[in-house]
From TrEMBL:
Pfam families: tRNA-synt_1c, tRNA-synt_1c_C, tRNA-synt_1c_C2. The lineage of its organism: Bacteria, Pseudomonadati, Pseudomonadota, Gammaproteobacteria, Enterobacterales. This is Glutamine--tRNA ligase. NCBIfam families: glnS, PRK14703.1. Keywords: Aminoacyl-tRNA synthetase, ATP-binding, Cytoplasm, Ligase, Nucleotide-binding, Protein biosynthesis. The keyword Transport does not apply. It comes from the Bacteria.
Amino acid sequence: MIISNKKTSFIHKIIDNFIIRNTKKKICTRFPPDPNGYLHIGHAKSLFINFEISEKYNGQCNLRFDDTNPDNNHQKYISVIQKDIKWLGFRWTKKTKYASMYFQKIYEFAIELIKKKLAYVDKLKKNDIRKYRGTLNTPGINSPYRNQTIEENMLLFQNMKLGNFPEGQVCLRAKIDMQSPCIIMRDPILYRIKFSKHHRTKNQWCIYPTYDFAHCISDAIEGITHSLCTLEFQDNKQLYNWIMKNITIHHQPKQYEYARLNIEYFVLSKRKLNTLIQKKIIKQWNDPRLPTLSGLKRRGYTASAIRNFCNNLGITKKNNLVEISSLESCIRKELNLTACRTMAIIEPIEIIICNIPINYQQEIKIFNHPNNHDMGEKNIIFSKELYIEKEDFQENIKKRYQKLTLGQTVKLKYSYIITAHSIKKNKDNSINKIFCTIHIKNKNQKYKIIHWLSKKHAQRSEFRIYNHLFTTKNPSSKKNLLSYINNKSLIKKYGFINKYIVYNSKKNTYQFERQGYFIIDNILSTKKNIIFNQIISLKQNWKNKI
Ligand code: ATP
Ligand code: MG
């Protein structure tokens, strides 16, 4: 199912070596989302890596929700994340896992650390913990509670568990080294108090393990061999290994890091995406301008195009900003082969063919795809009153041939040669109608070809033209993200499609000739009012790009 990665990455080399040393071990990876928002295309990279490896090495890949923060973990996100992963074409092995399935075991490991004098309950306030931790240039200071006895710590931890302390008053910390050059190793927090209701364990617990404590233990319990994460967890690896060394657990997973995906004009962070929704810049997580998987899907991206994109990325250890054109070219290449061609007029102007009778109608048979006749054909109708694109006509034009103008001849695609001879104007001097006549083709002449629709056979539709959501290439690097919002990221236009296009949730992607690729918006469209989302232009650097 997964397109095999043509390049062998450093992770594949690590796994190849692992297999030589551990002939009997099954390769086991996992995808560990925090259920605090929708998945984005950065997660697609992580999914691709983990699932590609499990498939290549005949191993397994677990889906495990890292649900250690009841404040922002929600069931609605869990359902959407599962749906999005399936949509991308990935199937996790066995049942869905949750870090919360291991809360009891994680708790017991905390007790083990207390009993080994490797953890203590700290009564310092949050701010003091931060102050005592020091900085990159100054070492940390030991908490005055660091040397409590095992009994004192046991009693305090019990009381934490029983809910006898308010949130934030005490926490369990690992006793490692406040002087460590690695700040994460300066007595990191292992457990904190939270009275929020957990989506799975409800009110069973009021203490929750931190990500660092829960993650490595969950990996170990599940027999994960290669725990793959992004580079920002590089420092956390020391803690990961420290926990693994100091608790009694048979399996010892190893963490490896790779570069996070960043794409031009996108923010790939659930937290930042959530800010856009909170600030009402975007209404929903599935807005077609967002890089969320549900947004990309609604925009018309296919799962195979996204998987192809991930395959092309490879796995490296160097963070970089991927050009948006490399994502766009994946969908453009695919749609070029699969999308039915048809004509639509997005900014219409009416033309009247004067030298044919009022009721004249002519059926014209055209192929759905010029190079793939297996995709079938359809009939379009030519008649007296037509729509053409406003920009295909210009009253006063210097450079002839490029457009229809008075006295100028153009070819209507799949149809006749016409010449414009007069126009009717509105009060505001804008053009109301253009009067044309059909001509006999002059074989020696070159004609500009324009597209058109029969007015009688056209249905009014909305076209949503999208642009980058941000005015800067690397919005994630900006402190004030919201000052870089492009207020022209969505432009709504009202034009016409051929009536034969009916609302159909299966066959819903089209190439509107000369305009680009469009998809019917399945959420907003109705049978009577079809709304199209522009997927992508026909060529790179289209006129509407900023
Ligand atoms: P976000 O900031 O979007 O919430 P996260 O890392 O906190 O990202 P998780 O839900 O914890 O999100 O991520 C699940 C997995 O996806 C992790 O292994 C994480 O490293 C990986 N991941 C997240 N974002 C990216 C990205 N941009 N590129 C590659 N992998 C990513
Ligand atoms: Mg996270």
